[in-house]
Automatic annotation (TrEMBL):
UniProt KW keywords: Heme, Iron, Metal-binding, Monooxygenase, Oxidoreductase
Protein name: Uncharacterized protein
Top-level division of the source organism's lineage: Eukaryota
Record-linked Pfam families: p450
GO terms, biological process: organic acid metabolic process; xenobiotic metabolic process
Cofactor(s) it depends on: heme
Gene Ontology terms for molecular function: heme binding; iron ion binding; oxidoreductase activity, acting on paired donors, with incorporation or reduction of molecular oxygen, reduced flavin or flavoprotein as one donor, and incorporation of one atom of oxygen; steroid hydroxylase activity
Regions annotated as coiled coil: none
Binding, heme: 347
Length: 402
């Protein structure tokens, strides 16, 4: 089928960012907008991620500190089988909490658990794309497609975010911005493009974009390493050679850990957590090759067509980190994959995400031997698609190395 035909079908089906019909307030923020509004929000998001995310020296220590909490939670399992996706989700959400709210939460904090359970459930909801394709489903009697529950959850989150925002307004020192919310309050005074109504969604967007993607990638890496003990051992051997035994890897170790980097790149390629990038509207008629994409069409970049291209990656369903190792044993060829997409809409959280993936995945392997729930029985590599592609639930045992 031709490209423009696909676009016209998407247009006909009114395919937009999957929240946009069901969650009425998501018509703002970065992801769901185009043109001038998008530029305003994107610029703001980039500045904040720059100041409080990847470019902030203390962010590296925030992630390392969170990694320690995460490892302790896993240690508490005492080698009993656990589903790693919950601890991962809690840890990754906490990093967004420190950017958004300027603080982390204890994993046992009941409010925090309630909060991330709602975000987790919303982002895993497989009905959202269906309801968005056929919005009429949300008006069926009862709640067969869970639309009312989705709305209740988004209202609950909205309320929570508004509470944080109100607290920040009461305590803000405009000379010393503490986090994303403070930045928004300060910037809103100068920039008519940022409004009170956009505010909760801007916070939600941080969670939506920055938790599911990273935590699912980490969970996939655990699954692949479980099924490939030789790769797990090779990563660990590499770390034992490059890093003193009594500490975890830091970003400064990255260059000395090419195989670990290759494992992360191969995880991103194979797991392909966002097989499709976000739908975007074409703002003027454009020709691509012989196809005319008419203004107003919705275009969805198909990232799988790169990540799973058999010509680029022979035997593409095989987990093989050596694809990213050259003859000299160096990490190479990362530009062949596009997990963060490309162009003007490229993921603004890429640097932060790369930092988190590196620090979490290497820490897990350095500290634990990952073993199956039952000797010789391995979970399937099949996943399920919510907002992101995630593995079906599985349990593993984490045995601490001495
Ligand atoms: C492994 C982790 C991540 C992956 C694989 C990922 C991937 C992507 C992809 C494929 C897009 C769509 C780009 C397009 O439309 O062409 C995107 C957009 C976006 N991502 Fe990420 N992302 C990750 C982590 C993050 C983090 C940590 C944040 C922020 C804290 C973030 C914030 C965003 C935002 C705001 C957009 C919308 C950009 C726009 O429309 O201009 N992402 N991401």
């Amino acid at each position: 089928m031709g490209y423009s035909a696909v676009c016209e079908i998407c247009d006909f089906l009114n395919l937009r960012w999957i929240y946009s019909d069901i969650v009425s307030y998501v018509t703002s923020g970065v992801t769901a907008q185009n043109g001038h509004e998008w530029k305003t929000h994107r610029k703001f998001m980039e500045t904040v991620l720059h100041n409080f995310g990847f470019d902030n020296k203390s962010m590296k220590s925030t992630i390392l500190e969170e990694t320690q909490h995460f490892l302790s939670m896993i240690s508490d399992s005492n080698g009993e089988p656990i589903n790693v996706s919950y601890p991962t989700y809690a840890a990754v959400s906490n990093i967004i909490c420190s950017i958004a709210f300027g603080r982390r939460f204890d994993y046992n904090d009941v409010e925090f658990q309630k909060f991330i359970n709602v975000i987790y459930e919303l982002l895993s909801n497989q009905n959202i794309p269906v309801i968005n394709l056929l919005p009429i489903l949300q008006y069926l009697p009862g709640d067969i497609f869970g639309a009312k529950r989705i709305l209740q959850q988004t209202h609950m989150l909205n309320k929570e975010f508004k509470r944080f925002i109100a607290e920040h307004k009461d305590t803000i020192d405009t000379e010393n911005s503490r986090d994303f919310i403070d930045e928004y309050i300060i910037e809103k005074e100068k920039n008519a493009g940022l409004t009170d109504d956009d505010f909760p969604i801007a916070v939600f967007e941080l969670f939506g974009a920055g938790t599911d993607t990273i935590s699912n990638t980490i969970t996939w890496s655990v699954l692949y390493l479980l099924k490939n003990p030789d790769i797990q051992n090779r990563m660990r051997d590499e770390m034992l050679c490059a890093i003193p035994t009594d500490r975890l890897p830091t970003m400064a170790d990255k260059l000395n850990l090419p195989f670990c980097e290759a494992v992360i790149a191969e995880t991103q390629r194979l797991a392909n957590v966002l097989p499709f990038a976000i739908p975007h509207e074409v703002t003027e008629d454009v020709m691509i090759g012989q196809y005319k994409i008419v203004k107003g069409s919705h275009v969805i970049p198909n990232l799988s067509s790169v990540q799973h291209d058999e010509e680029l990656f022979a035997n593409h369903l095989k987990f093989d980190p050596l694809r990213f190792i050259d003859k000299q044993g160096k990490f190479y060829g990362q530009e062949r994959i596009v997990p963060f997409s490309l162009g003007k809409r490229v993921c603004p959280g890429e640097s932060l995400a790369r930092m988190e993936l590196f620090l979490f995945i290497t820490a897990i392997v350095k500290k634990f031997h990952i073993l199956p729930e039952e000797e010789g029985t391995f979970p399937s590599s099949q996943g399920q698609l919510g907002i992101a592609y995630k593995p079906n639930p599985f349990k593993v045992r984490f045995i601490e190395w001495n």
